[in-house]
tRNA 5-hydroxyuridine methyltransferase (Bacillus oleivorans), 215 residues
Amino acid sequence: MSGSDFSNIKAYIAQFHPEEDPFFQRMEEYAREHSVPIMEKNGLQVMLHYFRILQPKKVLEIGTAIGYSALKMLEACPESHIVTIERDLNRVAEANQFIMEKNQNITILAGDALEISEEAAKHGPYDILFIDAAKGQYQKFFELYSPYVEKGGFIFSDNVLFKGLVASRDQGLNKRIEKMIAKIQSYNEWLHSHPSYDTILLPVGDGLAVSRKKE
């Protein structure tokens, strides 16, 4: 399948996405204007479909940004309690503004996710863990926070295809990108061989890994 064919498929699927309300449209525009990375629509819709099926009571997110995905998760599962971690204090302030405007019960933990796991543990255990932060640290995040996920619970990892580069053989990429790709490839391989999880990698959005903790 050519790149243009795949783009056509994504565009075709996008027409079936539910119409966004003005609040989330404004968040998306804010993200574009301020170069804030938020989850791609196709991947987000797939993940939210899991949420609607699973109806988790507690969710832990690593990587709040402006609170877009946390608010979308809560929209899909209004009875959930979302705990989300963000180290950028400017992003924490932006997220708090949007969350207060929506008047939602979301707990933001400000700090480096590699350093505040004990604080996050106080709010657990969790039915779902969503990893969407520094891609080079995914395995560390998984190892640090997966013990707080209930048996039978799920871990979602976003950006595991990294614009398709993890599956390409492109030459001439800069060293930083090559290093990032190598880390994501290593994470995907490690994740699929993990004895305590069943994992599927879905080619939606920027790549979504869905891992279920064995009973």
